[in-house]
Amino acid sequence: MAEAKRKHGFPRVWLVAAVAIYMLAVVALPLGALVAGAADDIGATFATLGHPEARGALFRTLALATTALVIDVIFGVVAAIVLVRDRFFGRRLLGWIIDMPLAMSPVMIGVAFFVLFGRQGWLQPIVAATGIDVVFAFPGMLLVTVFVTLPFVARETQLLLQELGSSEEEAAATLGANRWQTFRMITLPNILPGVASGAALVVARALGEFGAVLVIGGAISGRTDTATTFVYHAVEERQPAAAYGISIVLVALSLAALAAFAIVHNRTRR
Length: 270
Hints:
mainly alpha, 13 helices
């Protein structure tokens, strides 16, 4: 028995060590370097957060992430229920369309929306009639942010719905519950862990989006600059303290979002 444990123990030890080394190299070391860089001149790093341009960029990023979260949660839950509970022509195609943002480059997404809403864009006459600016404006940045975060809530919720099955919902229907009552009392509480997991991914992805918002928004200082494009400009202009300050805030916000939604996930699982 002891010999068998030794035989099976050594490979597992090596696997754990390999995973630990990989995570150290890919995650811990870069984050440690970021914190160390910020600590070199901590006064200048945090003084950056008082600049109007930095505050504006952070505010736009938070506004994009919050708005995209609300849209993605509503659409994601509805899409997941439709894909799992209904059978209709084109259902598989709809699933592929929802997954498409995962396979597309963010820069390409920005270009695609530019083709639609740019000066010579396909939809520019319609947009011009409404008086709403899309390109180089917040609405365009919101559209691309929603696009890149679209699959997360839908897919996480869909997987959970498939795992749960429909027996509880069918039982509620036989007892006289209508669709809204069944959703509110049965479906929603059951899918909350999946919604929480997807929401955490949406927030983290929206906070870190760069390529799509850069193309469609233009990263105009004071107007369409986001936290990520602010960091990009700071690095280009050799202002490391400014880049460190915003980067640390973005990391903290992402970790806080992941922790908050993890708590929700764990509580709703009990």
